[in-house]
Amino acid sequence: MPRKPTAPVKPDESIVDQAQLAEDFRQAANLAPALIEIDKRFSDGLPYDQQRIINECRFYMAQSAEAMLEAGKRLILLKEHEAHGEFTYIVTEQLGLNERVARRMMQAAFKYNSPQLEAKRTTLAVLGKAKLFELMAEDDEELAALAEGGSVAGLTLDDIDRMSTRELRHALRKERQDAGDSREDLEKVIAQKDKKLNDYALELERLQRMPPEAKEAERQRIENETLSQLQDASLKLMFEVQTFSQSVANCLAGTEQESAMQEAVCSTVRWLFQRIDEVAKGNGIPVDFAEMVTPSWMRDAMQRHGIEAEEV
What we know:
14 helices; single chain; 73% helix; mainly alpha
């Protein structure tokens, strides 16, 4: 006797959290563009495969600084593709890494695979893993310049190669401290200028509340005081101009025409005049250097006597 056909069993939808399922799909859709970008940057064109990535990570960890960066790239892939707990398990149990070390390896991979440093990575990798870690705090531009023969903290690539990691750490720390001191000095100067501006604003406000006679007397006092400060600054500048003039003469003494030294001196003098011109223009003061050097009345007299401007 044939069996009766059994009715299909409908899945019990009550055991599936539809809202959570929809949220999971939404999050996966949001993550897709970021994962595509991560894969494009770090997967060397290969699809993500957890076991392959783990094996490659083990291989590169046993190699040089260059390989450390490759391992860091694969740690980034694992971190972005796996849940946090799974990633931690892989790092600590399957790769035998300390989480802090893995984090530094990923930071180094991000740093030295940046657009500015990717082409310089092989050059910098000769310094070794420990020194690459120490240099991570430096700007990409400075590290790119270092790889091209420049310097960081006054140290060339050869200098850093000869140093111990401890010596490099000390040199970089000192450079940052000196830069911090310079920044602190600059902030003090700015604070002093801000205080002077605030004091001047308060002085003007006080002036507005005075009766007309007292206001005029106070205005004249302030003008005289500020003019006196300008005159003092002018005298100081004149002294510095004399010093500058002597330095220019010393540099040009015995220098051949159209030499590199002469061009450097000329560029410095032109730069100084440009700064003076900026001071004038910034304060709305019309300045005509040609008229100052050779006034129109002098040009007329020179023309009458057949004298060229270059002869004066």
